[in-house]
C-alpha cells in the first residue's frame, strides 16, 4: 500500500466512496496540482480522474506545453467550450468545468477539501452531487519516489555548497574595529545573502529569502537578519532555495568568527548533542514516530537546563518543532512535534534542533534526511562546527 | 457608492441576501484577508462580520499582534476553544470555527466564493446554512484609498529610482569585445538584477524576480533573462518589487547601449506612440473603458503594420494585454483588454504597451497610473528613451 501511486489512491477512494470522478481545479502554481499532473501552468486548470484515466482541461495557449510535460492520459482545451479569454471570470470558468464534466457519464463527484465552494454550488446546480474526499494527494506526497529523491538530493547538494561558500567568505574576511570586511567591503547580512543567492543562481536554484542573522538578532528564529556581521558572535545561516525542478533545499549552520562566550559554546555543544540524539532515534528507520524524535531532542535540552516548547510557550531554549517534511513545498506535513505519528520509508524531513537566548543569540543545526526501511540517509555531509 | 467601505459593502450584502454573518477563513498571507482585516499572519485565521462588527479568531501566539495591527473591533484566540497546536489539522480547525460561530445568534452564513468546501460541509453538519456571496472584497479593492495610493506611490518611486540606477550602471559600463563590463566584472543579467535588488532592499522593497533580458531573449515576455549583456541590442528591464507595506511597484523600460538596428528603432518609436495614445485616452478620466485603452494601443500598432493579440494568437507584435490593476497583488482585476469595462476613480493600473520580434528582440514601456475624476495621475516621471 505504501507503494500505491496517487492515481491508484484516487481510484480506490472513488470506488470506496461510490463516486464516478475526482475533480480538482486549482491555480497553475499549486503544488498538489503539479504533483498530480506533472504540469505547472501560469493559469488555473482542471484535473479530472474518470474511469482510471487522468484528463486535463487547460487554457488554449497551454495545451501544447501540457501535452509535453504532464503525466495525464489526455489534455483538452477550454477553447472546445468557450471562445475568448475567461481569466478573472470565475462564472465563465464554472460553466466550462460543468460542460466539460458533463461530457462524461458522471453523477457523483469527489473533490479535495479546499475545493472552491462556488464551483461546488454551480456543479450542484447542474445536477451533479459534489462532496469532499480525504486528502489522498498530500498523503501520497509524503512518500517520495526515486525521482523526487533525486531532485531533493540535487537541491540540498546545491544548498550545502552555498553554505560552504558562505563559510569560506566568513573565514576569508578580516576583522577591522569589531566588524567583518570581505575584500574592501563591510560584510553585512545583505551582502552575504547576495553572495549566497548568486552562487545558487548559477546552480539552478532560486533563493527568495535566507536567514543571515548575527549576534542577538539570531535569537529570534523569524528574524532574517540585517546589517553588520561581527566577530565573536553567532552568525546563524538558514538557506532554503527552490531548485528548478520545483523541489526545495533547506539547511542551517551557525558559525562564529573568533571566540564566542562560554554560554554560547555550551548552547552549541548541547544542540550538537541533540542533533546526534535525533539522528540516533532516526537510525531505527521506518516505524519510528515523529514525536519520539522531537521528545528525544527536548530531553537532551531539558536535561541540560534549557526550556523547550514541550512546556508550552517559552521565550528561550527550543522555540520550534524539531523539523518538517519537505518536497514541492518548503514545509509539508508531517512535522516533528508532539503527537506526530509513525514515519514511513521515503519520508524526507529536516532535522533542526536549536537553542535561543536573548543574551547570547541562537544556534541551529539543520540537515535533510530520508527515512529508509532500516535507518535514514543524510543528504548533508557538512560538519557540525561553529569555528570557521 | 464608490466611497463605500468594504465593511459597508459586506453589511449591505448580508441585508440583501438575508444572511446573519459573513465568514472568511484563509491563509494568513492572503491579500483579501489582509485588506479586510489590516492584519497579515503566519497562519490561517478567521474573519467574522456579524451585527456590523468585525471579529477575528487567531492563533494564541498571534493575538497580541492582531490586536495591534488589525482594524477589527475584537480579536479572539483559538485557545478559547481548544488547547494545543492544531496547524495541519483541518478537522480540528473546522470544529473551532463551528464553535466560534456558534457563540453568536447565527443561522445563515455568507462566505467568499473560494471558501473551502470542507469547511462549508462541516458548518452545514453543525446546522448552519452556508452559501457564497458576490466578491465584495475584491470589488472594494479596485478603488484605492488615500493611504493605499500613498503606499503605491512609495513603491513605484523606489522602483523608478532602481530603474535610474540600472540605467546608470549600463551607461557607466564599458564595452570590451562586444560585451558590457561594469568595473572589472562582466555585466550579466544576473549581476544587474542583483544590483537592482540590493538597491531596492535599502528602500524597504523586496525583489524576488525581475526581467533583465538582452537581445532576442527580450522577445519572449516571460523570459527573465540571463547571461551577458551586449551593446547595440535591447536590454529590457521589468522591475516589480513588493514594498514593506505589502503594495507592489511595477515598471518597465527598454535600453540600448550603442546603436540598435533600424527595425528596432521603429519598434521603439511605435511603442512610444502607443504609450502616448493610451495615456491620451486615460486623460478623459473615470468612465473611460479599459477596452478603449487597449483598442487604442492595438490601433497604433496595427496601423504601423504590427500584429496584435486582438487578432487572436500571434507570435510577434503585441503579445499581451495593455495593463493590469495593481495593489496588494501584483496583478489584480481589471486588466486592460478586450471586453474590459469602465474604469473608476481610484483604480490604479499599469499601462504597458510592447512589441516583440524574434529577430530584433522586445520593447516594453510601463508606467503606473491612478484614474482620477477627470484624468489620471502618472506615478512615473522617467523619460521614454532607449538611449542610456
UniProtKB/TrEMBL annotation, chains A, B:
Pfam families, per the entry: Creatinase_N, Peptidase_M24
Residue ranges of domain Peptidase M24 in the record: 151-373
Creatinase N-terminal domain: residues covered: 9-133
Entry GO MF terms: aminopeptidase activity; metal ion binding
SUPFAM superfamilies hit by this protein: Creatinase/aminopeptidase
Keywords from the named record: Aminopeptidase, Hydrolase, Metal-binding, Protease
PANTHER family linked: AMINOPEPTIDASE (PTHR46112), XAA-PRO AMINOPEPTIDASE P-RELATED (PTHR46112:SF2)
The family this protein is said to belong to: Belongs to the peptidase M24B family.
UniProt-recorded name of the protein: Aminopeptidase P family protein
The species this protein was found in: Halobellus ruber
High-level lineage: Archaea, Methanobacteriati, Methanobacteriota, Stenosarchaea group, Halobacteria
